[in-house]
Amino acid sequence: xxxxxxxxxxxxxxxxxxxxxxxxxxxxxxxxxxxxxxxxxxxxxxxxxxxxxxxxxxxxxxxxxxxxxxxxxxxxxxxxxxxxxxxxxxxxxxxxxxxxxxxxxxxxxxxxxxxxxxxxxxxxxxxxxxxxxxxxxxxxxxxxxxxxxxxxxxxxxxxxxxxxxxxxxxxxxxxxxxxxxxxxxxxxxxxxxxxxxxxxxxxxxxxxxxxxxxxxxxxxxxxxxxxxxxxxxxxxxxxxxxxxxxxxxxxxxxxxxxxxxxxxxxxxxxxxxxxxxxxxxxxxxxxxxxxxxxxxxxxxxxxxxxxxxxxxxxxxxxxxxxxxxxxxxxxxxxxxxxxxxxxxxxxxxxxxxxxxxxxxxxxxxxxxxxxxxxxxxxxxxxxxxxxxxxxxxxxxxxxxxxxxxxxxxxxxxxxxxxxxxxxxxxxxxxxxxxxxxxxxxxxxxxxxxx
Length: 450
Hints:
- The relative contact order is 0.06.
- The chain starts with a helix and ends in a 5-residue tail after the last helix.
- Strand 4 (208-209), helix 15 (214-224) and strand 5 (228-232) form a beta-alpha-beta unit.
- By secondary structure, it is mainly α.
- The protein folds into three domains: 2-130, MgtE N-terminal domain-like (MgtE N-terminal fold), CATH 1.25.60; 143-259, CBS-domain (Roll); 275-449, Tetracycline Repressor, domain 2, CATH 1.10.357.20.
- It has helices at 2-16, 20-27, 32-41, 44-53, 56-65, 68-75, 80-88, 92-100, 104-113, 116-126, 133-136, 150-160, 185-190, 197-200, 214-224, 244-262, 275-302, 304-309, 317-340, 349-378, 384-414, 424-445, and strands at 143-144, 169-173, 179-184, 208-209, 228-232, 238-243.
C-alpha cells in the first residue's frame, strides 16, 4: 500500500508539472493493476492528460484492469476510435465482457471500428449463451502442430508470447483445429531441440464444452489444479481457453449472487443504487415475507386462550422463533456450500439429513438443559413445568429446523434451480411457523400443570 501511495504522489506531481517524460517513466513501469488503481483515483482533468500521454495500445492495459463500473465511466471520456483501437490490443474475452452490458447501437458502432480479426473474435464470444464457458474463455492462446520441433516453437514463443494470455500450456491442433493434445511449457523447455511435439505432448487432458456453465468450469479448474482449461465445440474444435484469473472473477460474481439470494437481496447489493432502486429491488421480498408473517400472527391468535391462561408463555415466543430461524439458516448455509462443492449426491442425502437431525437434537437438548436451570431462577412465580414446555419445544423445533434448512436446497437443486434461492428469510419464516405450532400445542396439552 505504501508503494502505491508513493507512486500515486509521484504521478500526481508529474501531471501537475505537465512532465510527460517523467509520467511515462513511472506509470509504464508499475503493475497494470496499480496503474488502474491510481488512474481510478484521479480526476477528469488528470484523465485527459493521461490519455494524451499514452497511446491507445498503452492505455489498454489500464482499461483492462479496471472493473466494469469504472470501465463504463472511463468509456464516456473516450472517443469511439480511441476505444476501438484500444480494444484491438485487449484480450477478446475482456472486450466481450464490456460490450455485453452495452446497448446494441454502441456495441455495433465500436465493433465496426475494430480490425476484422478482433471483431470476429469478440462477436463469437458475444454469441455464446450467458454464463457459459464460451463467454469467459479467451481466444489468445498459442496453438502448435504435432510435427513442430521444440526449437522452432521456442523461437515462435519469443514473438507470439506477449499477445497470448498464458503460455504455460500450448495446444496441439490438426489442420481443422481439432484439439489433439496439450504441451506444457516445462516439457517443451526440457525437450531436445529436434524432438517433435508429438513425442512430448500429453494426450490425456481435461477439456470443457463451450456450453458448460461457468460455475462447473470453475469447479473443474479447482478440482484438477489447472492454470488454463481448453474449451472445445461439439465437433472437438478448439474454441478457446479459460484461464484461472477468469475463474476467480466467476467465483466472485457467483458468490455475490449467492449472498444476495441467501438474503433475498439479489440485484440490490450494488452500492451505487439509488434509494428508489434499492427499495424497488428489496420491496417484493419484504412484502412477500410480511404476508408469510401474517400466518405467524394467526397462529398466535388461534392460541389466544392458552396465552390468556398463562401470560408468561408469550415471553418465550421470541426465544423459540429466533432459535428455530438461526438453526435453520445454519443448516441452509452448510447445505448450499456442500451442494456447490459436490459433497451432497444421491447416495448421501439421507446421511446428510440424519446428521442435521442429530445436530439439531443435540443443540435443542443443550438449550433445554440450560433453560431448566435458568427459567426457575428468573421466573420464581412460574414452576418447573414452564421450563419443561419451553425445553421440549426447543428439542423438537431445532431438530426439525435443521432438517428443513438442509432439505429445501437439496429439493430445489433437484428442480435444476440454484439452491441459493432457498434463502435464509424463507427458511426462518417456515421454522417460525413450525416452532410456534409446536410450542403452543405442547403448552395447551400441559396447560393444567402450569
